[in-house]
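REQUEST ID: PR-0412
SUBMITTED BY: lab tech R.K.
PRIORITY: routine
TASK: structure prediction, single protein chain
INPUT:
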Amino acid sequence: MDKCQTSIQKNKNLSRRDFIKTTATTAGVATIATGITLTTYVNAAGENPVTNEKRWGMLIDTNKLTEVDIDDMVNACQEEQGWGNEAHSTGNQKAGWIKKVKVKDKATDRISNLALMCQHCDQPPCVDVCPTNASMKREDGIVLVDRHLCIGCRYCMMACPYDARSFVHEALTDQKEHMPRGKGTVEACTMCVHKVDKGEKPACVEAVDSDAVIFGDLHDPTSKINQTLKRVQSTQIRADLNLNTGVRYSGI
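STATUS: complete
OUTPUT:
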């Protein structure tokens, strides 16, 4: 098997194989925007109650995904969820719900573009270590953080094998009603649960005008994502952990 070198935006260097296998804890006080709660999208979905009959997932085809696509995904996520505009946020303190990753095959110089976000694991380590039950997994597989319960201990950040969570250091303004955020809390990709519950696709998926990113119900044999996964080779990052991720990749 060819060896590949992975280059991630944080100047980390990993081989392709290592990337697939391996990709401060003081408690804080959460401050959430007045009148905004999470219960509306954590516990209910309008006329469609959340059940384990569905398992929402995403398939990212790195053969089709371009750098422009990933930029569009990041921009759409920032616009939809309101992160990334914090004043004075620099370096590791800046929120990052989607990471742009490049995987380079050293033998062929072929570069694959990757969008890496919360993988929405079936067995999420972040939920296991959370002391307040702020980290949670809905019945349909979407992993969330309740900012009202989060004490900012960041255990979930250390437990996540995908470095997919961010800690909010700065005071926040102009928050989205559907996405409460708070200084001193942890946050990550919600798979745009507020849109999914209305029968819509996540903002990042809508931003890509191609089959490079497919979203749907992994349990539904008639869904596009289910049928595509039956036809193409796909990979779970850190499949060795048996987390059964909701986000899958093809082409790497």
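NOTES: Residues 4-23+25-250 form a domain with the Alpha-Beta Plaits fold (CATH 3.30.70.20).
REVIEWED BY: pending
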